[in-house]
């Protein structure tokens, strides 16, 4: 099963990116690029969901929809 998790990514003054999620407390990921940060955030989210499933059962996150909006980053 796939679930949708909203992630906020911000550029820190140190030059690295930080990902957090209001929807999933405890999700914090840091990387050198947005792509790396999102990849780490996906792994952290997966582990948080697995831990929550072991403690509480099925996670209360919305399933993915057939149509979604995405933002992509393109070097120009």
Topology record:
Layout lengths: L7 E4 L5 E4 L7 E4 L2 H23 L20
Antiparallel strand pairs: 1-2, 2-3
- What's the number of extended β-strand segments? 3
Q: Give the overall shape.
A: globular
Question: CATH fold name, please?
Answer: Double Stranded RNA Binding Domain
Name the helix and strand elements from N-terminus to C-terminus, one letter apiece: EEEH
What is the strand arrangement across the widest sheet? 1-2-3
**Helicity level:** 25-40%
Cα Rg = 14 Å
Features of the shown structure:
16% strand, 76 residues, Double Stranded RNA Binding Domain, 1 helix, single chain, alpha+beta, three-stranded antiparallel beta sheet, 3 strands
How would you explain this protein's 3D organization?
By secondary structure, the chain is α+β, with helices and mostly antiparallel strands. The protein has one domain: Double Stranded RNA Binding Domain. It is built from 1 helix and 3 strands; from the N terminus they run βββα. A 3-stranded antiparallel β-sheet has the order 1-2-3, with helices on one face. A hairpin with a 7-residue loop joins β2 and β3 (28-31). The longest helix is centred in the middle third of the chain and has 23 residues, at 34-56. The radius of gyration is 14 Å and the shape is globular.
Concise structural overview:
This protein is α+β, with helices and mostly antiparallel strands and 76 residues long. The chain has one helix spanning 34-56, and strands at residues 8-11, 17-20, 28-31.
């Amino acid at each position: 099963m796939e679930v949708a998790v909203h992630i906020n990514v911000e550029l820190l003054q140190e030059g690295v990116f930080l990902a957090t999620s209001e929807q999933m407390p405890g999700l914090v990921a840091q990387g050198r690029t947005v792509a790396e940060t999102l990849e780490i955030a996906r792994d952290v989210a997966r582990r948080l969901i697995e831990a929550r499933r072991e403690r509480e059962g099925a996670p209360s996150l919305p399933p993915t929809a057939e149509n979604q909006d995405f933002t992509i980053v393109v070097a120009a």
